[in-house]
């Protein structure tokens, strides 16, 4: 519904709440950008608020007043409420309602914001079309959440929007999770998100309590608690209701009995005005029932029917359940509305209680048999005429009615149908609850009812295992399988693990190798997700169960997952063979998604084993196939794996555009985890290409995009590496600790442990802790370097050799030095050097080992420099040039060699200055001073044309180019893959450097200086 709406209060005067209303209005002003400078193009920021208070304290009235004021200021106010049907909240109900209202109010902006993602967003708003039918995965919910956030940001880009979500204490888990995601991730748009809840309902085990605790820790979320009225405010409220100044003694009585609760003050005042003897009862609940009991019997009957029907009940449904003559029904409803117990819904299609406290009091007063009978009548009415209930709520409400009617024969099929709807909406926690309810009903349902159920209708995730899901009756194990996956996807992993263990115990009594293998695969995934192990023993059990069995989807999946596990943990010939068989089996049984995943793994393993070009070609084919077939999960993974393998063989320049494509794809489809991994890989590429500022920004995006600890660990590790290169050892150590925490210790992988060791070793070397350097190296050498880890192993060995060479003269380095150098030399000798990058690292490591023994020469370092001059590795090249210059000076060369050394130091110093690599810059300057070079090395890059003379960085030049083209901050952010806030900061810096006051003047300066000539390339750069 939209403002203005019918006020559900009998108080004509809005009393108090000045401070709380001021907070809400301030949030609205911030969101709308009122009073902020528009020079930088900023139009306000999203605002998040929580409004809490006990039942009846006045939350709804405050929201109504705020909404009316916001509407007068031009804002669109969209309201959605959590729905309570029995004890079952409808999945995403408040968001569905609010988005429907927003779409009605802003049809064109809403359609533009949802363009291209209607089939996914239809899970929240069925009016957008048919929800996409795709293979479900653990990222499905996160994908939907991210697309919802983008929808709201885009809709609110030009219009101020207030999104009100009422009664969070009834919210289903999916609604709570979506709200938390919005509060965490909304970064742009003129948007206010206001959620209300009953604070007195939030007991210690209430599911909303952890969310409130989480939101309290967010600095961006403001929490407003409504207190009860003071005696003075009670007096003003009563005066407004009675339209006369009340007697002070009456105010004292009302205040004492209501304790300042606004709703109970209303009830007491209305009762007094109607002449009720309120002193006859001490219970305010009884006071509410007294008002109901004063109604005619038919009106009481209708009130009881509405109380059991849900938060809002449609008029035709009330008529079907009440079974009263039409005139009698109208008179009964008129009496209930006239007594201010019921109120018509804004659309006039149904009724609800004026306050939920009244509904709860009436519902609680029902006898158990009476409640069951009413639910049965509701269910029978909806079954007889489904049009009585809105289509998007019909299945869920029917399941609830039959369940609370205590009729297993009817409830089991209805609950299973509701579970399917929850799954389609990615409401996996609600799906799990419904499936658990179905398992509870299973034994009580008649055999003929159970035998009529089919897996094809109710069990999507469980493979056929040799039977036809369209003709074979549904089994209890099928429900357990569906529940296990729902728990895994919904984050309820402990519940999922219990179900899996119970299923495996049942399969011990009734053996079925394929089904057992499938459950062991699920157990492996849950164990890894819970950080209880690496999941290999469970996978090994699954492999044993399918060994020797004919090809099947389960068999192919076991092989594909095992191959992927081995690729990450213990790559080798066995993993390659598993991947090849997985591809073969998947093709034989027509399991296309499994085949594509297995081919991705196979391509990576081919590259890692040395068959580089064939492996990269296969990865490109899979990426193209997955894109063409719309298999988004595989495509998201491909945009992580393909550029990663390109990086591994030193083809970073080739990897960057693939990563940019990956960012566009993952952001379009809301694939948060793949997007985070893409950001992390992009940070690594940009680091290698010498664009450290952009690398740091990409790494920061990696830490904040995904939900998993591993993606946060990945981003933190990249930031630690950058900080180490810049000489900020404290920051590097802090980030390294965060990376360790993110990766954990339960599931070690070489692609994580080796880079961690590399940074830890570098920190130890910078701090002069040579013994710690050797400890880190020894641990890595003990673990070994499996196939495919050369990209991590070579930098580690080179860093260790550099540390030994730097510590050659330290007394503390003497003990154990020979053994350490011998072991390091052996590792360098035996590690593969199959691509130019690895060969360059090998030469560098050998040169450092010679330097550690005092036997390096200018010829040694000249060869290393030549190897890196063929690669795009500016920082590495600068470092080896520094070493060559040092060797030239050490050999006491003539003027030509001294000039060459000066030139090399100049080049190295320029790179160090550009990157902010302070240790290298200091080393270059120190060597130049010691060598008494007359030609000082350059410490900064020379200005690049007019833009450089203005002091603009490469990133600022890119931003100025887009400002000159008329782009907004939002468009600049999307084009350069930065946040709108970062774009705004860049614009402000540009205006200051140019000495202008606005974007138009900046564009004029750029035009006057000819910075971006017409017809020039519209280059999209990232620094």
TL;DR of this structure?
The protein has 1023 residues and is mostly helical.
Question: How is the largest sheet built, in terms of strand order?
Answer: 2-5-6-1-7
**Average predicted local confidence, pLDDT:** 85
The biggest beta sheet is recorded as: 5 strands, parallel
By DSSP, the count of extended strands is 10
Low-confidence regions? 1-9, 36-42, 277-282, 936-944, 1015-1023
Kindly name the structural category: mainly alpha
Question: Measured on Cα atoms, how large is the radius of gyration?
Answer: 34 Å
First-to-last CA distance: 47 Å
Number of alpha- plus pi-helical segments? 50
Q: Which outline best applies?
A: globular
Proportion of residues in β-strands: under 5%
**Percent of residues in helices:** 55-70%
Characterise this structure:
The protein has 1023 residues and is mainly alpha-helical. It is 65% helix and 4% strand. A 5-stranded parallel sheet has the order 2-5-6-1-7, with helices on both faces. It has a 3-stranded antiparallel sheet with strand order 8-10-9. It has a two-stranded antiparallel sheet with strand order 3-4. The model is unreliable at 1-9, 36-42, 277-282, 936-944 and 1015-1023 (pLDDT under 50).
Task: Jot down its keywords.
1023 residues, mainly alpha, 10 strands, disordered N terminus
Task: Give the SSE map.
Layout: H1 18-32, E1 47-53, H2 59-72, E2 76-81, E3 84-85, E4 88-89, H3 93-105, H4 107-114, H5 118-121, H6 140-155, E5 161-166, H7 173-185, E6 191-198, H8 208-216, E7 221-225, H9 231-242, H10 248-258, H11 262-273, H12 284-293, H13 297-309, E8 313-314, H14 315-322, H15 326-338, E9 342-344, E10 350-353, H16 356-364, H17 368-384, H18 391-404, H19 408-424, H20 428-442, H21 447-451, H22 455-458, H23 476-489, H24 493-509, H25 513-529, H26 536-546, H27 553-569, H28 573-589, H29 592-608, H30 612-629, H31 632-648, H32 652-668, H33 672-688, H34 692-705, H35 709-726, H36 729-743, H37 750-766, H38 770-783, H39 790-806, H40 817-830, H41 836-852, H42 858-869, H43 874-890, H44 895-915, H45 918-930, H46 945-949, H47 954-964, H48 969-976, H49 980-994, H50 999-1009
Parallel strand pairs: 1-6, 1-7, 2-5, 5-6
Antiparallel strand pairs: 3-4, 8-10, 9-10
Helix pairs in contact: 1-2, 3-4, 4-6, 6-7, 7-8, 9-10, 9-11, 10-11, 11-12, 13-15, 13-16, 14-17, 17-18, 18-19, 19-20, 20-23, 23-24, 23-25, 24-25, 25-26, 25-27, 26-27, 27-28, 27-29, 28-29, 29-30, 29-31, 30-31, 31-32, 31-33, 32-33, 33-34, 33-35, 34-35, 35-36, 35-37, 36-37, 37-38, 37-39, 38-39, ...
């Amino acid at each position: 519904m939209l403002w203005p709406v019918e006020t559900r209060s009998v108080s004509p005067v809005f009393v108090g709440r000045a401070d709380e209303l001021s907070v809400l209005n301030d949030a609205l002003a911030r969101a709308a950008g009122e009073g902020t400078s528009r020079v930088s193009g900023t139009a306000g920021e999203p605002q998040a608020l929580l409004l809490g208070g006990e039942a009846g304290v006045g939350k709804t009235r405050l929201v109504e007043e705020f909404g009316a004021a916001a509407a007068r200021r031009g804002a669109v106010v969209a309201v959605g409420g959590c729905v309570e049907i029995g004890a079952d909240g409808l999945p995403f109900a408040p968001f569905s309602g609010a988005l429907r209202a927003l779409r009605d109010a802003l049809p064109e902006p809403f359609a533009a914001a949802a363009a291209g993602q209607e089939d996914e967003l239809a899970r929240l708003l069925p009016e957008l079309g048919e929800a996409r039918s795709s293979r479900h995965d653990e990222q499905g919910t996160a994908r939907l959440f991210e697309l919802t956030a983008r929808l709201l940001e885009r809709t609110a880009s030009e219009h101020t929007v207030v999104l009100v979500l009422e009664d969070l204490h009834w919210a289903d888990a999916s609604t709570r999770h979506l709200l938390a995601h919005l509060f965490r991730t909304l970064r742009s748009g003129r948007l206010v998100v206001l959620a209300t809840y009953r604070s007195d309902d939030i007991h210690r085990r209430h599911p909303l309590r952890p969310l409130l605790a989480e939101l309290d820790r967010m600095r961006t979320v403001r929490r407003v608690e409504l207190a009860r009225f003071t005696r003075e405010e009670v007096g003003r409220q009563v005066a407004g209701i009675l339209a006369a100044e009340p007697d002070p003694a009456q105010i004292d009585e009302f205040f004492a009995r209501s304790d300042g609760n606004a709703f109970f003050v209303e009830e007491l005042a209305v009762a007094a005005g109607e002449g009720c003897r309120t002193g006859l009862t001490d219970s305010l609940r009884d006071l509410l029932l007294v008002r109901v009991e004063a109604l005619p019997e038919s009106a009481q009957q209708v009130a009881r029917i509405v109380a059991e029907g849900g938060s809002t009940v449609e008029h035709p449904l009330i008529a079907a359940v009440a079974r009263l003559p039409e005139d009698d029904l109208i008179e009964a409803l008129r009496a209930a509305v006239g007594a201010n117990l019921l109120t018509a819904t804004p659309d006039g299609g149904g009724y609800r209680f004026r306050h939920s406290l009244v509904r709860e009091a009436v519902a609680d007063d029902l006898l158990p048999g009476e409640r069951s009978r009413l639910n049965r009548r509701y269910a029978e009415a909806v079954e007889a005429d489904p049009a009585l209930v809105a289509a998007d709520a019909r299945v869920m409400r029917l399941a609830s009615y039959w369940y609370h009617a205590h009729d297993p024969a009817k409830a089991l099929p209805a609950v299973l149908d509701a579970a399917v709807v929850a799954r389609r909406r990615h409401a996996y926690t609600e799906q799990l609850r419904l499936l658990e309810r179905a398992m509870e009903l299973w034994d009580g349902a008649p055999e003929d009812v159970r035998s009529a159920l089919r897996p094809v209708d109710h069990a999507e995730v469980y493979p056929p295992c040799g039977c036809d899901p369209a003709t074979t009756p549904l089994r209890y194990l099928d429900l357990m399988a569906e529940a296990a996956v729902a728990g895994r996807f919904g984050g309820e992993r402990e519940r999922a693990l219990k179900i899996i263990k119970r299923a495996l115990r049942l399969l011990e009594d009734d053996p079925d190798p394929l089904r057992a293998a499938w459950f062991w695969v699920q157990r492996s995934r849950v164990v890894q997700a819970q950080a209880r192990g690496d999941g290999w023993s469970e996978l090994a059990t699954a492999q044993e169960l399918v060994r020797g069995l004919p090809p099947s989807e389960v068999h192919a999946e076991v092989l594909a997952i095992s191959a992927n596990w081995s690729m990450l943990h213990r790559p080798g010939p066995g993993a390659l063979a598993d991947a090849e068989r997985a591809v073969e089996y998947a093709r034989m049984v027509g399991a296309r998604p499994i085949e594509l995943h297995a081919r991705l793994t196979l391509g990576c393993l081919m590259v890692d084993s040395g068959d580089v070009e064939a492996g990269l070609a296969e990865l490109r084919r899979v990426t193209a196939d997955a894109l063409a077939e719309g298999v988004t999960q595989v495509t998201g993974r491909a945009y992580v794996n393909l550029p990663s393998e390109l990086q591994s063989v030193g083809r970073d320049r080739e990897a960057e555009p693939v990563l940019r494509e990956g960012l566009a794809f993952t952001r379009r489809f809301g694939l948060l985890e793949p997007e985070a991994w893409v950001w992390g890989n992009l940070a690594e590429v940009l680091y290698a290409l010498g664009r450290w500022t952009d690398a740091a920004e990409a790494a920061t995006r990696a830490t904040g995009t995904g939900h998993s600890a591993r993606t946060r660990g990945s981003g933190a590790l990249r930031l630690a590496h950058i900080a180490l290169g810049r000489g900020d050892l404290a920051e590097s150590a802090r980030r390294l600790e965060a990376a360790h925490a993110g990766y954990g210790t339960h599931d070690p992988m070489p692609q994580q442990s080796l880079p961690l060791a590399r940074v830890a070793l570098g920190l130890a070397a910078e701090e002069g802790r040579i013994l710690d350097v050797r400890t880190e190296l020894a641990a890595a050498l003990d673990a070994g370097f499996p196939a495919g880890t050369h990209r991590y192993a070579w930098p580690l060995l080179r860093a260790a050799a550099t540390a030994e060479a730097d510590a050659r003269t330290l007394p503390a380095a003497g003990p154990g030095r020979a053994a350490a150098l011998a072991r390091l030399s052996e590792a360098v000798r035996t590690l593969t050097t199959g691509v130019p990058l690895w060969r360059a690292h090998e030469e560098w490591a050998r040169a450092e080992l010679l330097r550690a023994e005092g036997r390096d020469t200018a010829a040694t370092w000249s060869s290393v420099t030549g190897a890196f001059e063929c690669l795009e590795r500016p920082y590495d090249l600068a470092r080896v040039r520094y070493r060559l210059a040092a060797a030239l000076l050490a050999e006491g060369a003539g003027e030509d060699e001294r000039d060459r050394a000066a030139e090399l130091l100049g080049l190295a110093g320029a790179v160090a200055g550009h990157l902010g690599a302070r240790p290298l810059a200091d080393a270059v300057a120190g060597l130049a001073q010691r060598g008494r070079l007359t030609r000082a090395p350059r410490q900064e890059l020379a200005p690049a044309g007019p833009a450089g003379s203005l002091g603009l960085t490469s990133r600022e030049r890119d931003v100025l180019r887009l400002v000159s083209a008329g782009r907004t901050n939002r468009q600049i952010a999307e084009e350069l893959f930065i946040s709108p806030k970062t774009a705004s900061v860049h614009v402000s810096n540009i205006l200051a450097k140019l000495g202008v006051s606005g974007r138009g003047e900046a564009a004029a300066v750029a035009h006057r200086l000819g910075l971006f000539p017409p017809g020039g390339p519209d280059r999209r750069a990232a620094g």
